[in-house]
Amino acid sequence: MTDAALVAPVGKLRRPDLSETRIRRRYAAERRFRLYGILAIGFAVFMLGFLAITVVAQGYTAFWQTRIALDVTIVPAKVDPQNTRLPESLIQGDYQAVVRESLRELFPEVDSRADRRALNDFLSNAAGDDVRDMVLANPALVGQTVRVEVLASDDIDMLAKGRVDRNVAEADRPIKDQQIGWYDKLDKEGHVVSSFNTGFFTTGDSREPEQAGVGGALMGSLLTILTAIILSLPISVAAAIYLEEFAPKNRITDIIEININNLAAVPSIVFGLLGLAVLLGFFGLPRGAPLVGGLVLSLMTLPTIIIATRAALKAVPPSIREAAYGVGASKQQVVMHHVLPLAMPGVMTGAIIGTARAMGESAAVLMIGMVAFIVDIPKAITDPATVLPVQIFLWADSPERAFVERTSAGIMVMLVFLVLMNAGAVVIRRKFERRW
Q: Same domain for 190 and 264?
């Protein structure tokens, strides 16, 4: 072939290489897709960090409580009406009046009735409880003057934590200018102290923000979740083993599998209505008890754990079953001694997912009466109780500013509680994990 044959005809242009253009477009599309993924992850991390920072910024102060240090004179006539120094008499004492008198001694210029009422607002309704506990523990304190750090009111607590803006108009804040002046005097003289709020974890709910705690809701959540796990985990695993390993493949099992998948997507309020109609209405179980809440949440977690357990059983290599059959093992021995131990990490994953869903549910437990105002900490699964999501909901609906930090602090406690429970499940999962 001559060189002239290789030359393109005059007047005709050489066609571009389409493969190079397509490759460049493909690489550009991949770069854009990678960029979109990075932006999506960055946006999710930003929103999660923003949420966490907002919750922590609003709620960390709830773990600290403002108190007022006073030299309290324990007047016998007020704290011991029967003058017997016995607990039966000391428990009837007016310790709140004793504390108020000690506070008024620091402000001798306060003489009008309105000013005294405003000064009394510095103290919580439970300020005298600390003095009462001291006197009951040591009756010899009657008649003496002791230094006591009593609980401040929620408005003073917010002022001490900087949650009250002093620059706004007096009519737009709960504390008047006169009270701010009294607070500054107490703070300057060292009467305002701050300590870790142990009562937030040991007490139940209260109408007063400074006295409200998550102890009752925390115990109620623990009892409810334990009841749900104890009921749902064995039933779920047994159902998954039967459906995956023993049940014949026919129309009935297909219908069961479809319904299990559908139940996993049913709204939680439907399970709450079921508990209200059946558990409370028909069986007459105690309303608002962790037993009923655990039964309802166990119904919710059943489909999730069954689906995860079946997936874990399917993931076990067939060679494990064949090797067990080869040495003469029965069907039950193959499943219980070889397949189930290897699938246990997946089973625990399903339990973690189910527990996380049950932990954050509030609609279901609202329907069975766990929304009641509970002051006492439940000690059994039949005692009236509430759970953390409902407690947070009740606080969020309260108008007082101090309940805002209680709400955020409750969210923090619930997240930590959930992380600890999941961490325990992960440890158990690692213990059962095996490699093949």
A: no
The whole-model pTM stands at 0.82
Q: What are the pLDDT digits (tens) for 368-393?
A: 888 778 888 888 899 889 888 889 98
Q: Which amino acid is at 239?
A: A
CA distances from 173 to 25, 105, 261, 281, 424 (A): 62, 27, 53, 47, 46
Show which of 163, 197, 231 is a domain's final residue: 197
Whether residue 146 contacts residue 72, with contact meaning beta carbons closer than 8 Å, is answered with: yes
Find the domain containing 353 and state its range.
215-432
Residues sharing a CB contact under 8 Å with residue 73, sequence separation 6 or more, in sequence order? 98, 101, 102, 144, 145
Number of separate domains in the chain: 2
CA distances to 346, 381, 424 from 421, in Å: 17, 19, 5
Question: Which among 93, 104, 157 has a CA at the least distance from the CA of 409?
Answer: 157
Q: Which run of H or E residues covers position 413?
A: helix 402-432
Q: Say if residue 259 is in the same domain as residue 287.
A: yes
């049940």: which residue's tokens? Answer: 247
214 vs 201: CA distance, rounded Å: 5
Closest CA to 416 of 4, 10, 55, 31: 55
State the Cα–Cα distance between residues 209 and 405, nearest whole angstrom: 9
Pairing state between β 145-151 and 192-196: unpaired
DSSP category for residue 246: I
Residue count of the chain, please give it.
436
The two structure tokens encoding residue 50: 């923003």
Residue type, 407: T
Predicted confidence (pLDDT) per residue in 239-292, tens digit: 999 999 888 888 898 899 888 888 888 888 888 888 889 888 888 888 888 999
Whether 21 maps to a domain, the answer reads no
End-to-end CA distance of the chain: 65
The CATH number of whichever domain residue 413 belongs to comes to 1.10.3720.10
